[in-house]
Design goal:
Blueprint: H1 6-11, E1 12-17, E2 21-26, E3 33-38, H2 51-72, E4 76-80, E5 91-96, H3 118-135
Antiparallel strand pairs: 1-2, 2-3, 3-5, 4-5
Length: 137
């Protein structure tokens, strides 16, 4: 049975569920940062997914990227599947701007997270969820 890693559950807010993945908002208001987590038990690498699941993951990733580009109009979208700390397969989608506080370095470990207010979190989650529905493939 699928269970979200406790670190992701602690650090993120649920935006919505897609056919394969949970869509999470990293609770750090310094960067527009979402995470896709395939709802498949025990998966650590993309290659651990079936071919059909891999294709669905890329469709969902592209849809999420389009939604984030539409909402934030970033200078660059960063996608990463590191898994060095959280082994459960998850894909980071981070909208980056030349003026953000970590540019051009990676966001990891640069600055302590600054949580969204309840209103900001609700607004971000609703907006991304609505855009995901609009951009569905």
């Amino acid at each position: 049975m699928f269970q979200l890693d406790h670190r992701l559950a602690q650090d993120c807010l649920l935006i919505t569920e897609l056919p394969l993945s949970l869509v999470l908002l990293m609770n750090d208001s310094q960067y527009p940062w979402t995470i896709l987590v395939p709802k498949v038990e025990g998966v650590r690498e993309i290659l651990d997914l079936s071919v059909a699941q891999q294709q669905q993951l890329w469709i969902e990733s592209a849809t999420l990227t389009r939604a984030m580009q539409s909402r934030y109009q970033p200078d660059k979208m960063n996608l990463a599947a590191l898994g060095n700390v959280v082994e459960q397969l998850h894909l980071h989608h981070i909208a980056r701007f030349r003026q953000d506080i970590a540019w051009p370095a990676p966001v990891w470990g640069k600055h302590p997270a600054q949580a969204y207010t309840a209103e900001q979190a609700r607004s971000e989650c609703e907006a991304i969820s609505e855009l995901l529905a609009e951009f569905k493939a």
